[in-house]
Write a structure and sequence with these properties.
There is one protein chain. The chain is α+β, with helices and mostly antiparallel strands. The protein folds into two domains: about 260 residues, Aminohydrolase, N-terminal nucleophile (Ntn) domain (Glutamine Phosphoribosylpyrophosphate, subunit 1, domain 1), CATH 3.60.20.10; about 190 residues, Rossmann fold, CATH 3.40.50.2020. The protein has an eight-stranded mixed sheet with strand order 1-4-3-5-2-11-10-12, with helices on one face. It has a six-stranded antiparallel sheet with strand order 6-7-8-9-13-14. α5 packs across α6 and α9 crosses α16. The longest helix is centred in the C-terminal third of the chain and has 22 residues. It is globular and about 70 Å long. The N and C termini lie far apart (about 60 Å).
Length: about 500
Amino acid sequence: MSQVNERWRRPARDPDDDSPRLECGVFGIYDTPEASGITALGLHALQHRGQEACGIASFDGQRYHTERHMGYVGDAFGGGDLNKRLPGRVAIGHTRYSTAGGSFIRNVQPMFADLEAGGIALAHNGNLTNFHTLREQLVQEGSIFQSTSDSEAILHLIARSRRPKFLDRFTEALQQIEGGYALVAMTNKKLIGVRDPLGIRPLVLGDLNGKAVFASETCALDMIGATFVRDVEHGEMVVADDKGLRSFRPFPAQQARPCIFEYVYFARPDSVVNGRSVYEVRKRMGRRLAQETPADVDVVVPVPDSGVPAALGYAQEAGLPFEMGIIRNHYVGRTFIQPTQGERELGVRMKLAPNRAVLAGKKVLLVDDSIVRGTNSVRVVKMVREAGAAEVHLRSASPPIQWPDYYGIDMPDREKLLAANHSVEEIAKLLDVDSMGYLSVDGLYWAMEAGERNAAHPQFTDHYFTGDYPTRLLDKEIAQGRNELVERQLSFLVDA
């Protein structure tokens, strides 16, 4: 039984909101009463990882039940009859922001398929860097895709495997995909959690009354009262079934390279990711930022909400007052959009409001978690100046973002990244600030307490700042090769 909310597209979002968009959040729980209700609670905690759509799949021992909706978890799964709509003792869930495929209900997860060996539901966080190559090959061989999501390719690969056992089929499929991902899958008998070979995307294992729980972040375990057991390790597949918990290693051993941007922006500050408190790391970013880019100012003000811990660390290190000079309205959704420039300006003020008592007549230092295109920063700076600030200085708690992402973060192409095309001095002029500063890459590694960055074998996935991608980018390489071939052919025709 499947129910689908037929609102086909997500509400339009402000095109000038240049915050990085996260990939997704996943959750799964095994052999627990009211599993779907617990899954909904877990997804509430992971709402920050994707506000576009959400879904839950459950298995009651006989049948699978799925619901997928556009919009927020609370709107979709807030009803009291959820465990009747989605009965069963096993469930998985997903919060989504599209990075591969479009914003359609058909792309919302979990995805379900009836295979020869039985049903399987799958929820995926991340991006496959060889998806288009795989899809083209699968379609040529007869596969029929129902979505444009890269997650569906995994189901096709499982279905086409000729291995006799399901786990062997699943493993064979995993060995053909590339990129950064964390998966939770549910079959008639098993709940499975998998993390990519480099551990780029996060996944944790928890325990609720002796039963296994998988989640993208520890905050989801806290939400349901589960105990954190450990991180699912890079390249590990953990299986929960009636035999208990088992661990498998489907990939050759590699050094882990988890995503460092989880600490900069994506993870909730109350989460612990790969053994590190996100809140403490962000405070250390602010401390190091104060050491590297001091400023003669009166007050340190965070750009809410993700800039708060770094701003607090900066203020403590510099011995400056920390004040909430900008107040965020949490009752305006992230998808708010206005059709005209004037209405967009009004929309910014609906989300963020200046605290004039803090800003008027002061030399203000703004701390933001990161700066992508700079459109948010322009408006925030303008708002602070209009509130009477004598000077406005801006600091980024991350290094300059100069390279796009291909592992599940929706980030603009390089020509649209502010720091990829302008010097720090040029950026200060463009944003109309009295001074501009970024945390260094070395400073970010210091905040992670990871020592110096090992250029030969980096400890983290940090290509956004360094251009050092941890895997090959097969789809991009093939597309680039085709473009170069077309350019050569056109050049030949012109010369002829």
